[in-house]
Design brief:
alpha+beta, Ybab, Chain: A, 2 helices, YbaB/EbfC, DNA-binding, Nucleoid-associated protein zobellia_4052, YbaB-like_sf, cytoplasm
């Protein structure tokens, strides 16, 4: 039993290291999101760091419209990045978890 516990602890430590490596890798994954008409484009990492915002010149004349476009497009980009982030981290965590009955449903 003690050997099993040591093996599980080692596996959990290995999984934690893989999760940290995955977080670093997700800094290099870029996602793009655009407004419906393409007037605003946002580039964001899978760790939800905004890298670039492109705004069409036509939006510079209407502050309120620009703010609305930015909010909508940034929220869509953040949602997409969160989905990628959570899927990647869940896959790594599930891969490294010991086989404990009933725990497999937590990572579906």
């Amino acid at each position: 039993m003690f050997g099993d516990m040591m093996g599980m602890m080692g596996k959990l430590k290995e999984t934690q290291q893989k999760v940290e490596e995955t977080k670093k890798r997700l800094d290099t994954v870029s996602l793009e999101e655009s407004s419906a008409d393409g007037l605003v484009k946002v580039t964001i990492t899978a760790n939800r760091e905004v890298k670039q915002i492109q705004i069409d010149d036509s939006l510079l004349e209407d502050k309120e419209q620009l703010e609305d476009f930015l909010i909508l497009t940034l929220n869509k980009a953040i949602t997409k990045a969160t989905q990628v982030n959570e899927a990647e981290l869940a896959a790594v965590a599930k891969e490294g978890m010991p086989n404990i009955p009933g725990m497999d449903s937590l990572f579906k």
